[in-house]
Amino acid sequence: MDEHPSPEFEKEIRETLNASSADPAFVYDLRATLLEKAKMKQQTRSFSRLAWGVALAILLIGLLVASPSVVEALKRLLGYIPGVGYVEQGGSLRLLSTPVMLEKDGLKLTLEKGAADSGRTILLEHIEGYTPDRYSGQYCDTPARLILPDGTILNQMQYEITHEGGKASPGGSYYGRYIFAAIPAGQLQAVLEIPCLINDGNFRDWRLQLHFQVADATQVMPVIELPTQSTAATPPSLSETVPTQPVVVPASPSGPTLEGFSILLESETPLTDGYILSGSYQWADPRFDIFSVQINDPKIRDANGQQVPFEPVEPLVPVDPAARKLPFAYQISGRNYAWPLTIAVNSITVNLPDQATFQFDAGANPQPGQVWNVNIDVPVAGHVIHVQTIELTAGRTSSQLGFTFTMASDPAVMGANIDDPNAGMSSAGGGGGGDNASAAGPFTYGWALEGYSPAGVKTFMVSNVAVMFNGPWQVAWQPSAK
């Protein structure tokens, strides 16, 4: 696999999930030069709360696939370090002894935490002073690396960066997470080399000396396995005792649904200021794999119906593309709640596997900006995609051309792709929704390709029709020991 997600892939992930709540400014500014060469796709529709879909999708990137027996063995050995995530306990576990800081070029870089076990090395960075106006426009995609005292180089396996403050962090504060190959057991020294900080070619050659120490057992939080059997039932009332097994509430039998969908809780980890709750979303429906299911805006509420703050963290187990399940882990803030808590999902968006084609003639000499009111109905996957208009659109350069399609359908449809398969295009997935909200108004999907010829009769393919299934689905939980 690639050492880290490409800029084009990150962009398509955001557009695939219709991430209206994800700020594109930072991605745009940081990757402008690469986008000149990239295929550009877009798909928009008005609906609420998509941040969770984005978060879950990003957590899928870079996770390793393991066999069930390996996964079960790892689960018995794992502990949790706040901020770092799940780690393998034992003598191979080493932690960064102290934060490491370097100030250079008006920026301040601090490696705040680090952990190394037999499987990988994780480093958490905090960057201060990098504001949008400092971006040089020189994108640099050379990955960071760890160098051991004997000269061995450990390659970067994954890198994620987030910012705080919105609009590409006007305050200049960014947080990065590196994952490298494992530092050999017993090794306590390494050098981190970052060729370009935040992938900006204007901030080059950062080098930090790292010192690790063997982890103390008190630094690692235990992972407590939960019963994984589930039974279908109605939600417990506030006065009822929470059963020892998770209670999974099926969706209403009326309307379309995802067959056999349930929420299973697998482990809990007590923290000083909250809990990590780990589990998986599972389904039996053979039509959908893990890449075609999006969980929309899960909620956690206490026994009084009050919302409980939480955020997603890296899941306990790896993603298995062959399984119909999406692992999750949520960090719950605070401990003083009216128990039990209820984890609920009100809707799910899925990309239906069907596809259909239609033809369109743009004429011998179409021009960018030209719009055709076509009003074509395309039956696909039990729905009718009504293509209202087709517009010839230019990309970032005059040699990039493509089409933007305005569509409408029934309220359950959140989006759809329309591609030109004869141009070597591959569909990238549909959008999503949340809170049982029906789609409002038309939705669009567009692309521009280098050297694309729009003239003449085209055969377009409609695919990845994204449909919302409504629940709710929920499961009750309270910690083993409060």
Give a structural overview.
This protein is mainly β. The protein has 5 helices and 30 strands. Strands 4-6-7-10-9-8-11-12 form an 8-stranded antiparallel β-barrel. β11 and β12 form a beta hairpin. The longest helix has 10 residues. The N terminus is likely disordered.
Number of strands: 30
First-last Cα distance: 42 Å
Low-pLDDT ranges = 1-74, 229-255, 426-440
Oligomeric state of the chains present here = single chain
Largest sheet, spatial ordering of strands: 4-6-7-10-9-8-11-12
Q: Mind summarizing the main beta sheet?
A: 8 strands, antiparallel, barrel
Portion of residues within helices? under 10%
Structural class: mainly beta
Radius of gyration: 24 Å
The pLDDT mean sits at: 78
Strand content: 35-45%
Cα shape: globular
Number of helices: 5
Furnish the topology, listing elements before pairings.
Elements: H1 7-16, H2 25-30, H3 32-35, E1 40-46, H4 51-60, H5 68-77, E2 78-81, E3 85-88, E4 94-96, E5 100-104, E6 107-116, E7 121-128, E8 145-147, E9 153-163, E10 173-180, E11 189-196, E12 204-214, E13 221-222, E14 224-225, E15 231-232, E16 247-248, E17 262-271, E18 274-282, E19 293-296, E20 299-301, E21 310-312, E22 325-333, E23 341-352, E24 356-361, E25 371-380, E26 383-394, E27 400-408, E28 413-419, E29 440-450, E30 457-477
Parallel strand pairs: 15-16
Antiparallel strand pairs: 1-29, 2-3, 2-13, 4-6, 4-12, 5-6, 6-7, 7-10, 8-9, 8-11, 9-10, 11-12, 14-17, 17-18, 18-22, 19-23, 20-23, 21-22, 23-30, 24-30, 25-26, 26-27, 27-29, 28-30
